[in-house]
Amino acid sequence: MSDKNLLWKVLLIVVVAGLAFLEMWPVDKRLKGGIDLVGGHSFLYEIDTIGVEDVSGLSTRVMEILKQRVDPDGVRNLVWRPVGDTRLQIQMPLPPKQAIEKRTAFLAAMEWLENTNVKYSRLIRVFSLQPQQRSKAIEAMVSDMPQREQLLVQATQAYDIWQEQLEKQANQQALQDAKEGYEQYLEKLLESNIDLLELNEALDIEASLSERQVALGKITSEHGQRAELIDAVVQAYDQWSEFRGPLDDPADLMRLLKGQGVLEFHILPEASPENPEEFADYQKRLSEQGPRPSPEHEYAWYELAKSEPFGAGTGGHSP
Fold first, then answer.
1. Are residues 104 and 219 in the same domain?
2. Taking the complete model, does pTM exceed 0.85, yes or no?
3. 29: which residues sit within 8 A by CB, 6+ positions away?
């Protein structure tokens, strides 16, 4: 081998290794340790077998279906293990330390913002207090939101008027007017809350898209007195997103599994040699009317995720 050829091969190896290294950089964000290296969480699920006659291999079948739905590409770093026929173990590794810290900071910022919202149950408790206790409670409620003080005072006064009308056993119209006046102020107080679901939906929009800025700007403009708290939440979320994985908490996995609904299993019928045309009517109805179920038929068509093992003639469906 000539020195020239050797040099080119060495350079090629260096270039390939460099590209591979760049693809993995930064390592702490791109590579995630498995449960054997970083620890993690283990879940053991018991499969409900009510109405299931044959449980042989049931856990394996459930595992394959859930894997296809939850992690079809195998990128979530989950470990699936059938335990007997009716139990399934799922393991997930801990996220990187930075992801845990950033997620904790985001949740803290979100909690701080959430605490500025007023809850209906808390308002009712405050209104029903004695005057001296009520004043202290209102002071505590407006410490984070001074702009609410006037609304709280007006709502309190409207509540007292309503209660006075109840005690006097006033006529129906007077009671209705007093109650409606109180409920109007109560509604205004609740409208001053930040919709946290709307905020989370805005945060989940891709950071580079203008729609995110529009959505966040709308929330900030509607609640300008809490702009700093909203900005703190956005900043904490963006910092967490740099390290965020597909599953950063056991609750994420549990929510993902719960979202798959109830699994159903169907038995695939096969025509017997004595009656090869047994399902001819079903195949005819499939081609003419589609796979809609019919109450007068014993069997029904169901779409298959993979139709290859069942033959090309099924058209992606199986009765």
1. yes
2. no
3. 96, 242, 243
